[in-house]
């Protein structure tokens, strides 16, 4: 078990007691999707499987594999977390995205889990919704019908590439 004065497993640079531990104990709620992601990583690192289930968006918990998560956590030495990209999750946002790479060692082999996770604010707190392996495509700005076409023709989108749309 990690003590409160030890470095936080999420590698934020803070002590565990000042970073993820208050979330894992239920003393505080993570204020952002990134903080929730970091605390979920720390839950794997400390074997706190109930926290992983409790932070899933209500209504999405039916297929949570407690034993699988516990086995993965126990069989792994969690060696670091990289936050690659965050999107949304600020004050007033109700959705957020965190791309991360979790580093771990299993059976002597160095491994990574690269995921882009989606989070939702509901009932005043952030929840983990789902994740996809690797990088989620970034949102592209929508082209309006009367905007110049993105192909560079000089025509309006609706008279060019948007004709079939």
Core attributes:
4-stranded antiparallel sheet, 165 residues, alpha+beta, single chain
- Helix/sheet category: alpha+beta
Computed Rg: 20 Å
Q: How many strands in all?
A: 4
The largest sheet, given as strand count, sense and whether it forms a barrel, is:
4 strands, antiparallel
Distance between the termini: 56 Å
Overall pLDDT confidence: 88
Can you describe this structure in just a few lines?
Helices cover 21% and strands 29% of the residues. With 165 residues, the protein is α+β, with helices and mostly antiparallel strands. The protein has a four-stranded antiparallel sheet with strand order 1-2-3-4.
How do the helices and strands line up, and which of them pair or pack?
Elements: H1 21-25, H2 33-46, H3 49-54, H4 66-74, E1 76-88, E2 95-106, E3 109-122, E4 125-133
Antiparallel strand pairs: 1-2, 2-3, 3-4
